[in-house]
Structures are given as structure tokens and as C-alpha cells.
User: What shape does this take?
Amino acid sequence: MRAIAITACLFFILAACKKSDNYIPPVLSSLSMTSVTGIRNGNSTTNFRFVVNVNPVSDKEIKVTYATKDGSAVSGKDYTPVAGTLTLPANQYSGNIDVILTADSLRQNDQTFTLELSSPVNATLSVTHATGTIQNPGTYLPIDNTGYSTPSDYPGMTLVWSDEFNPKTLNTSNWTYETGGGGWGNNELEYYTTNSKNLFLTGGYLVIEARAEIVGTNNYTSARIKTQNKKTFTYGRMDIRAKLPKGQGLWPAIWMLGNNITQQGYGWPACGEIDIMEFLGNDLKKVYGTVHWGVAGGSHSYIGGNYSLTTGDFNSSFHVFSLQWDDTGMTFLVDDEPFYSASKTDIGSNYPFDKPFFFIMNVAVGGNWPGNPNLSTVFPQRMIVDYVRVFQ
Assistant: This one.
């Protein structure tokens, strides 16, 4: 009997071993989570929803611990921190974890934080964390007002027009947006938009912002505005107070064109061009003043000069770019210092500078003159304009 019992025991052991050879343990579900990118609202809170996915769906309840962790975004200031346990009932494909961003109209670089997962129950983690990227295209930008200023009146002259940029939006009674890409005749790389990411008003300043972002075949965006057919002037003193962007490939300009440019026989360069200020962002101390003229669709002539600062630069503080213009010619100034004059005699035939002209302000990216941005160029870059004033 004892031998029979031993034999039976061995039989059952062998049977159990044979069964274990074919045993397939249950597969644990894997939890994953995707990153979230969104734009912060300046007036109300914004919700970031992180989705935790289950694969494959489990017939058991799953739990996982979660918590936010600061990056360049700070909890309590930029977002409301969260921590806890997410419970996913059996047969559920996903669950949500919401993080609330605080309202903020400050314009600043993107900020990030992470949402981290840990200690899963009845599951494994294929992803342990996801990133929340906060985009901040607000319309409030702190601006250092230091730099040179000019008076609001001059003896013997009257202020006939100005834009001090005090409203919250661009005054379209004064200005028109120009939009598009295509190189603008100079192989430029930007696309000009009407988007508030590229042009906005803040605290009494106009800001034109060049950004590294793709629109169509253009790798950059910016803004360009003009007063054509709205505010035109013949002669006077023009003062524009501005702070300029920096970086290889940046080309801001404050300039004027003859308002007759659209009339037959007066296309560029016959209409005339007055470049009150042009600047190459890789040379922070030098600006240029130039006049262009010629025959419509034909020969082109230009003369001009440049001005270099002895201290400081055109990016870190404000400077005033001025044009004194009368029926004998033009003088260009920086901070009330004349640096170049072009007389009617210097220009000679096809003289166009005795008719109404309009203003243009823009920040170009790339082109024949400045060259293209390189790895040293940091975006966004901004031209900040305090005022445009015309005295006669």
C-alpha cells in the first residue's frame, strides 16, 4: 500500500509539472501618457488634460500614483500642482489627469513642467512622465524705458501728427498691415502676418516681433505696417524712438516711400525711398540712412551714410532716429546728432522727394543684405517703438 501511495504522489507531481510547462501567465496592462502643449490665456485659467492610456484593457481595477514637478514653470505661480491616485476601473481604456494653468498676460518664453507616474497596481509603466509646455503669447511685456528722448515740440515748428501707441490695439486709422512672404524682392525669409504674436501694443509701446515659426514655405514670421493713403507728409522733422532687435539675419527698418508708388510711371524706384533707419542685427552699434531714386522699373541710384555709437548699443536702450527734410534735401540724425545729408543737387535728375511720402516699419529676417540667421540667432526678437512724430 505504501508503494501505491508513493506512486500516486509521483503521478500527481509529474502531472502538475506537465501542466506548468504549458502555463501562460496573465499579461499586465501597460500605462502610457502623452505630453501636452497649449497657450496660456491672459484673462482666465487654462486646462491641461493629460490622458493615461491602458494597453491592453484589463479586467482588473488599475491604480497609479501621480504628481506634478516644476520645470521652468513654477507651481502655485504658473499652474496649480496636483498629486494623488488615479483609479481606472476594470475594462476602461483611459483616464484623465487635469492641471490648471493660472491666467497671465505676460509675454515670455515657453515654460514647462512634468506630470510623473509611479507605483502602478495591476499594471506596468511604459511611460513614467509627460511634459506640459505652456506657450505665453501674452500682450504685456515689461520694457526698460532707458535711453535717449526728444522733445514733444520744437521752436518754430508744429506737431502735425504722432502715434504714441497708447491704445491696446494698433490704430488702423493710421496704419495698414502688409502681409505675405515670397522674399519681398530681397530674398527675405519671413512671412508678414496680422497676428498678435508678431505685432502688439503694451504700456504705450508698439512691438514688432520676429519669430522662428513656419508659415507655408517661410521659416519665420514677423510684421510690417505702413501709413500709405492714411498719413502722408511732404517735408518736416520726423522723430521715431525705438529699440532694435539683435542677431545675425535680423533687419529692422523705419522708412518712407512716395505715396504715388501705385500710379503709372511712379513705381519703385521712381516714387523715391527714404530709409530713416536700417540696422543689421549682427552689428549692434551701427545704423544706416539712405535715399533711393530712379526710373520706374529701370535704373536705380542711392546715396547714404551710417552712424556708430561710441558707447552702448541699439538693442539695450532706446535711441531716436530722425529725418530733417525740406525742399533742398534731407539730413539724417541719431539722438539729435546729424550724420548724413543728401541735397537736391546730390540727387540730381528724377528727383522724387518733393511729394507726399508714407511711413513703413518692419522687421525682416534674412535677405541679400543681412544674410540668413544662423545657430547664434535667438528668437523671438523685437523692435520696440515708443513714438512716431512729425513736425512741420
User: Anything to note?
Assistant: The chain has a mean pLDDT of 94. The longest strand covers residues 107-121.
